Each structure stands twice: as C-alpha cells, then as structure tokens.
Amino acid sequence: QVQLVESGGGLMQAGGSLRLSCVASGRTFSFSTFAMGWFRQAPGKEREFVAGIIWSRTNYADSVKGRFTISKDNAKNTVYLQMNSLKPEDTAVYYCAAGTTLRSDYELNHLGRYDYWGQGTQVTVSS
Question: Which residues face 11 on adjacent strands?
Fold first, then answer.
C-alpha cells in the first residue's frame, strides 16, 4: 500500500501563487518509477486532470498550461504542484494520485490508471 498526504492548500486572491505538496509513504521503494498526478474537483463537478509526471515527462490540462508546474523529488518521495496566476475557476479540492503501473505520458490524464489517492487539499481563489 501507498499512502499519499497533500498539503499547501488555502485561500488566495486571484493572481497569487500556491505550492501544493504530496508526500508518499508505505511501499515507496520504487517511488522513482511511479507516475504521479494532480487532479481537482470543484463542487458539483467531476474530478478532472490537472497535471501529471512520469520520469521527466509531464502533461498538463489546457486550462493550467503556462501557469502550473508539476515536479517530483524522488529522494523525498514528494511531488509538487506550483500554481501561479491563480484564477477563481481554479477553486477546488486538489488530489494527489500515484500510478504504480502507469508508464506512458499519454496516459497521465487517465484517472482510472492511478492506484492510490490522497484525501485532498482545498484551494480557494477569491476574485
């Protein structure tokens, strides 16, 4: 089993920045091979892909390209999501996910390819 714990959410004004962190624990001896993703879910909406990383390859939702950056520190079993130029429409609960068998960057945006999920962290952007 792999446990994921997100942190870094909060309330921010539009135009501001936040950095989310997700620390993995448990069976993480092969964390460097895990695909990691960030998803978000706004009230009344389905969970949607935000960003993903496998090895050094990344993939982003069109809505966050140029504003968000995902990175991974294998030594710390941690994945980050740097969010800049935040907009009110970025308001959501953000979830970290690990895909232990996902190997292609083309699948990073496939929710069903992830095996483990964190509990989520709330991000609220005010206008």
Answer: 124
Q: What is the pLDDT of residue 60?
A: 97
C-alpha–C-alpha distance, residues 98 and 72, integer Å: 12
Nearest in space to 97 (alpha carbons), one of 14, 16, 24: 24
3: number of Cβ within 10 Å: 14
Residue among 75, 94, 85 nearest 15 (CA): 85
Dihedral angle sign, alpha carbons of residues 38, 61, 126, 80: positive
Token reading at 94: 């953000």
Q: What is the pLDDT of residue 53?
A: 97
pLDDT digits (tens, 9 = 90+) for 64-108: 999 999 999 999 999 999 999 999 999 999 999 999 998 888 899
